Amino acid sequence: MTREILCGDSAAVMGSLPEASVDAVVTDPPYGINIKGKAWDSGVPGAEAWAECLRVLKPGGHLLAFAAPREYHNLAAAIVAAGFDIRDVWVWCRHNGGGMTQSDIGLAIDKRLGVESEVIGKRCAAMWMYNVDDNLRSTTTECHAIPRLRPSSPEGRRWWGWCPGFSPGYDFIAVARKPLRGALIDNVMTHGVGAINIDDNRIPWGDEYPGDEHCSSPAGRRPTGIMHDGSQGVLDLFPRRGGKSAARFFYCPRVSRRERDEACENHHPTVKPIELMRRLCRLVTPPEGLVLDPFCGSGTTLIAAMLEGFDFIGIDCSEEYVELSRRRVEYYSEGSDAE
């Protein structure tokens, strides 16, 4: 059994791993958007790191890597430059509550001019609460009123309501594959990787099961490359059938407060849900396979791999996050339930 969490530069550490020894790479690398001024997020990983991923992957092995929409092109270009084939892009839709909000240009102009903006009322900053039994967001039970401002300066009022962009609502997941050796079937039979595990990721039919010979699989619908967090704003975007939203077919919740705290006080700024990472690992990793996360952060991918019965290797350049990953893996290995 392989369960390793290593500290250091990802490309350098991967250089010590044997060639063609890893079944899948599933990772949430730096987005390159300077999130909260973190030095490690100053740019997306370059081709050098992805070339090492390519080297250690078995022929036909998949690489799944998250990206911010505005930096996806840079990430994909680096992955292709390393020698991977881009196969697809998956999307995780999420409610923007709790994400990085976009500042108002007019209010920023007031601040630049040293002018105090006018208070014109108060607005409610909702505190979303979770049902810890099923990890679904419930109706807001707390509301903190904060001042609603309007620019005071003429220059500020001219640009009031203009912002740098939208609030974040989705993440891209690059789906890449190391080139096959021969035909796909030959590659799968020889190396055990190269295809996507559809049946173990089907979405249950529920009340809509056709129950006839025309049904493709009694196990459920074939999954798509779209997942969502279960928030009402996302649910409303999907068509309804029989009074139920079809969005339930792609459900994957956001990280709950309980999952963040667990007993490990996870304060990493870009934590992904364990359930989401479990699905990704399950889609591209063969039974008892080895998952590599070269940018493991707080260790969510490693926990997901472990809970799915896979071996794992995690790498991070931060000693703080490596220690956090070790604590979280130990916590979940002792039988604590992942939501």
Counted by DSSP, the helix tally is 11
Number of strands: 14
Query: Helix and strand string, N-terminal first?
Result: EHEHEHEHEEEEHEHEHEEHHEHEH
Order of neighbouring strands in the sheet with most strands: 1-14-13-2-3-9-4-10
Average pLDDT: 83
Distance between the termini: 25 Å
- Largest beta-sheet characterization: 8 strands, mixed
Strand percentage = 15-25%
List the SSEs and their pairings:
Layout: E1 3-7, H1 10-14, E2 22-27, H2 47-56, E3 57-67, H3 72-81, E4 85-93, H4 105-113, E5 118-127, E6 130-131, E7 136-137, E8 142-150, H5 154-158, E9 170-177, H6 184-191, E10 226-228, H7 232-235, E11 240-241, E12 244-245, H8 257-261, H9 274-284, E13 290-293, H10 300-307, E14 311-316, H11 319-333
Parallel strand pairs: 1-14, 2-3, 2-13, 4-10, 13-14
Antiparallel strand pairs: 3-9, 4-9, 5-8, 6-7, 11-12
Helix pairs in contact: 2-3, 9-10, 10-11
